[in-house]
């Protein structure tokens, strides 16, 4: 079984709808991250959490919210989806530390019509 | 200016040849450097960390030049399976552990 899983893997929704993307991990890592990837751009950090009680905004948090339900679960919500939120979304985890490799989930392809 | 810049490519490489490419970063306080590999629309995976003294992992060699603020990746004896996008990744400074800045990637296509 994959260490980092994301659901759904693909989602098509309409403008104005609320949508939640879920991430679960079995790696036992404290740190979790949400990124989005757009063609021609690097991954951009949306939100990150260094432990269950710690939530921080990344560089592009507007229009998104997150919830860290447990060490293993970190969900991303789009309160009112808009077309420019169409992207590939990745969840990642890492251990605490400086040279901390991040392990990514398989991604969720989201299309907002 | 982007924090991490890469030549998008593609670098078309005959099988067995050597290919090398660089990445420049703008934050002089960055402490950690990585190369990730991403296959088409799949998740990025760590290829190798980049250490100050340079490091090698099989056919892959990574170098760091702090003075000029760039890192490089060299692939020797290219295999068809090396075809992928290579992401340059840099942390955002000493007080930003865990916060990484990703380049947009360099595409490598290895041809028979």
How would you characterize the overall build of this protein?
The complex is a heterodimer of chains A (113) and B (112). Chain A is mostly beta strands and 113 residues long. Chain A is 0% helix and 55% strand. Chain A is built from no helices and eleven strands. Chain A has strands spanning 4-7, 10-13, 19-25, 31-37, 44-51, 54-57, 64-70, 73-78, 87-94, 103-104, 108-112. In chain A, strands 2, 4, 5, 6, 9, 10 and 11 form a seven-stranded mixed beta sheet that branches. Chain A has a four-stranded antiparallel beta sheet with strand order 1-3-8-7, with no helix packed on it. In chain A, a hairpin with an 8-residue loop joins strand 9 (87-94) and strand 10 (103-104). Chain A is globular, with a radius of gyration of 13 Å. The termini of chain A are far apart. The mean pLDDT of chain A is 93. Chain B is mainly beta and 112 residues long. In chain B, the strands form two sheets. In chain B, strands 2, 4, 5, 9, 10 and 11 form a six-stranded mixed beta sheet that branches. Chain B is globular. Chain B starts with a strand and ends with a strand. The A-B interface holds A 31, 33, 35, 40-45, 48, 50, 58, 88, 90, 94, 96-102, 104-107, 109 and B 2, 4, 8, 31-32, 34, 41-46, 49, 87, 91, 97-105.
